[in-house]
Amino acid sequence: MNTPTILLIGAGVMAEPYLDAAVRNGVRIALVETRERLEALTSRYPIHDQETLPSSEIGQDTGWIRSALALADRLAAAGVPWGCLAFSEPHVIAASLVQDLHRLPGPGTRASMSSRNKALQRTQLDNVVAQPTFILAGKVADAEPWLRAHLPAVVKPVDGMGSSGVQRVTTLSDIDELVSTRGGDGPVLCEQYVAGQEYSFEALVIAGQPVLTNLTHKTTQDQVHFVEVAHRVGFESSDPTLAQEAQRTLELVIGRLGIRDSVVSMEFRESGGRAVVMETMVRMPGDHIWEAIARARNVDLYEAHLNLALGRPSACASPFPYQAQPHPVAGRFGTCFLVAPRQGTLRAINWGEWTQSSDLLRHGERISPGTPVRPAESSADRVAYAIVRAADDEQLTAWLRDLLDPARVILNDDDEVKAS
Predict the structure, then answer these.
(1) Rounded CA gap, 340 and 416, in Å?
(2) Superfamily name and number for 332-420
């Protein structure tokens, strides 16, 4: 029996369209996940084989590597065609080791190590693309002299993901407070702050060539922790010149990091018409961006990536199955994330009239009522998400602004606050 199998390392909520694509295409599913997550998935998907790891190890590369190698050895011994995909940042090293060991399609270990280690990535791209001035410090306190000479600056964990641990300092007192509260944190990458609008450029890379590219316009909550709260995909139609600059830059990054077969997301800031690279990841972008792009193009990007991993690459894929519209899809698409206006306890999310709108394509709460919340200092602090469709850029901007109204996040003490 030559039914192909896909080994997916990590399978959070945003990975479920990969599982759906596998089922639709007759591909067997093998998963590496925590026991709790596997129990939730096995009731909904036909899981062919699995390996678990303790919840305490989900943030450690070694736990994923150990479980992934064990499951990969079983699949290889079965003698059937198979491939391997990483879901999120803690999974890319494990997936790449499996891919290289078993000669499967993938980004390559050097590219994956660079995705996982921001300092390694910065060093390799120095003098190749535009990027901030930077240093690597063993701990925050060690970087104090450099930070004082390079204000404003940004401090970020070397192996972090999203906005977790990212912080901007603009004054000497900011540095004093940073050293006082996080002086022992490390290793950290310290960078000169780059002003300018933030974007990302996504692509499916086949044999080192980017196809199915997309420009995403990003909105961050503030310029301190850089928590992303809104994304507008398909922005190349609004700024084709910037999209060309982003593609030129991504091609340089692909060549330098040796990226072979992968989904790639390159985050950058626009400064003087140039794409100044913040970081590049060899995995599906987060924040439901990949789904929004799939909806905008009406192309099943999950199926395309699945086929790439199975050694049958093609820039073509089926129409995206979650909508019955002809390609190309008219309109604009975006995602947004609601955040708490202040510290408190979540009572509810007021979606209001949006629950009756066909322009709200998908939405959900990330935490349950009764959970303590605070103004977002990292991506994990965001309380709910939405994927929306609009007729044009102007309407999409209005839709996102309305959904991000702080009043939609209702806290237990709201009545008392209003009364005072």
Answers:
(1) 16
(2) ATP-grasp fold, B domain (3.30.470.20)
How many alpha carbons fall within 13 Å on the CB side of residue 295?
Answer: 23
Q: Can you give the residue ranges of every domain in the chain?
A: 5-104, 133-192, 197-330, 332-420
Helices (H), 43-91: 61-78
Say which residue the tokens 């009572």 belong to.
Answer: 347
217: tokens are: 């316009």
79: left (phi over 0), alpha (psi -120 to 50) or beta: left
Q: Around Cβ 356, how many Cβ atoms within 10 Å? A: 8
Burial pattern 183-220, b for ≥16 Cβ within 10 A else e, equals eebbbbbbbbebeeebbbbbbbbbeeebebbbbbbbbb
Residues of the chain with pLDDT under 50: 324-328, 419-420
Fold of 133-192: Dna Ligase; domain 1 (3.30.1490)
Q: What is the dihedral of CA 212, 217, 221, 223, to 10 degrees?
A: 110
Q: What is the pLDDT of residues 382-395, one digit of tens each?
A: 999 999 999 999 99
Radius of gyration from C-alpha coordinates of the chain? 21
CATH code matching the domain that covers 197-330, chosen among 3.40.50.2300, 3.30.470.20, 1.10.287.130, 2.40.70.10: 3.30.470.20
CA distance 299 to 320: 5
Two structure tokens written together for 265: 């997301």
Say yes or no: do domains 197-330 and 332-420 share a fold: yes
Angle, in degrees to the nearest 10, between helices 118-125 and 240-257: 100
| Predicted pLDDT of residue 166 | 86
pLDDT, tens digit, for every residue of 315-329? 566 777 765 444 445
Distance between CA atoms of residues 301 and 318, nearest Å: 9
Q: 129 to each of 1, 21, 94, 256, 261, how far by Cα in Å?
A: 48, 36, 28, 10, 21
Q: Are 245 and 274 in contact (CB under 8 A)?
A: yes
CATH for 5-104 is 3.40.50.720
The shares of helix, strand and coil residues in the chain, as percent rounded to the nearest 5, are 40, 25, 35
